[in-house]
Amino acid sequence: MAPLMALQGLLRTVVAGIALFGVVSCAAEDPDRFGIFISTLDGRRVQRIVSEPRREVNHARVSPDGQWITFTRYNKQNWKGIAREDGGYMETEIMLARIDGSEMQTLVPPRKDRVAANGYWTEDGKAILFVSNDNLGRRAQVSRIDLATRAVTKVPLDSDLWAADPHPAKGKMAISVFDPKDKLSSIWLASDAGGPARQISFPKPPGPQQGDTPLGDYDPKLSPDGARVIAMRHMGKDNWHAVLIDLQTGEERDLSAPKAVDGVPEWSSDGRKLIFWHVDVADLARSGLYTMRPQGDERQRIPLPKGFFYTMPAFFPGEGSGGDARIIFSAEKNPLL
User: What was the pLDDT predicted at 238?
Assistant: First the structure.
């Protein structure tokens, strides 16, 4: 399952690369070790809505009506009894809860040797797309769970692609596709119902493959108008860039510094800002959640409480990009930050 772990494991790979996971971040029985938070974009009104003592929770996304969240929860424990992303994606589950964290329930339960992760709401809010390996080839593919019936179906894609990280907008669906022959990931575009898909990014790694994480592009997000895609590009060890792709011209624009760690960028609903998490390898205290314009300028850190490693941010739907716009994100306690 290394390709699937690579497609979804930016946090694990980058943090492991700078030895952060080797640090004991909090007491073993801390009930708030892992959490999902909401706040305003200017860092005010921080509120924890989900807490877990031993299971990491991340990839939280808000429903189109702003009333629910879906997120991934990890269950495969390490030798310390902690289940987290750096242990891989087996036995993950797709979760659902009210926006305040109440009425929490499992949509897709954890199963041995199965993956159910990285859920994303459909545009109508009636279903959630997620990554699953529940198929004969045990390859990463896109599935859909209908919230009314709880029926899970595979999203059909031509050529039976190794696909992950689904993001729907304007009737389209952007996905990351792993090529097992070239050991490279790229971004493809299809209908949100599946069917034919076409490649839209063509990464050219600057050097040879290093480590287990394939080079290339991951976690695409379509812009609110459906005209552009922002994705993260693995350039090499501790080097992840935010890359903007124009769907009409095919032009690509790298928004990151030559040597950077900028992860999982997401659009604001008005298309004016991108939110992402940034790791400063030279100074971990400067790591955190940031915003920038789609042009790559005006990078600003979101002022959040110290003592946490923040990841996987996203804007609330329909709230724009002003200081009062709400965001959702994951965090793990870490006294070094």
Answer: 83
Full set of structural domains in the chain with CATH: 2-333 (2.120.10.30)
Structure-token match 């879906």, residue found: 70
Task: Put residue 317 in one of left, alpha, beta given phi > 0 → left and psi -120 to 50 → alpha.
Answer: beta
Which of helix, strand or coil describes residue 88?
coil
The residues pairing with 69 across neighbouring beta strands, listed in sequence order, are 62, 97
pLDDT value of position 236 = 84
The values of phi and psi at residue 27, to 5°, are: -60, 145
Q: Check residue 209 and give its pLDDT.
A: 61
Q: Among all chains, which residue has been given the structure tokens 């993001």? A: 167
The token duo for 224 is 């609110």
Q: How many CB atoms lie within 10 A of CB 210?
A: 14
CB-count burial class (<10 Å; 0-12, 13-18, 19+) for 335: exposed
36 contacts 64 by C-beta, under 8 angstroms: no
Distance CA 125, CA 148 (A): 11
Q: Is 16 exposed, middle or buried (0-12, 13-18, 19+ CB in 10 A)?
A: middle
Pairing of strands 172-179, 162-169: antiparallel
Looking at residues 113-122, what average pLDDT do you find?
96
Beta strand 252-254 with 262-267 is unpaired
Amino acid code (one letter) for 276:
F
Cα torsion at 10, 32, 315, 233 (round to 10°)? -10
Instruction: Please name which of 273, 275, 268 lies closest in space to residue 319, comparing C-alpha atoms.
Output: 268
Residue 136 has pLDDT above 90, yes or no: no
Structure tokens at 207: 């050097």
**Total residues belonging to the chain:** 337
> Which ranges constitute the DSSP H helices of 88-145?
none
Residues of the chain with pLDDT > 70, as a percent, come to: 90
Query: Which band of pLDDT confidence, cut at 50, 70 and 90, is reported for residue 41?
Result: very high
179-192 mean pLDDT? 91
Structure tokens at 213: 């994480």
pTM: 0.91
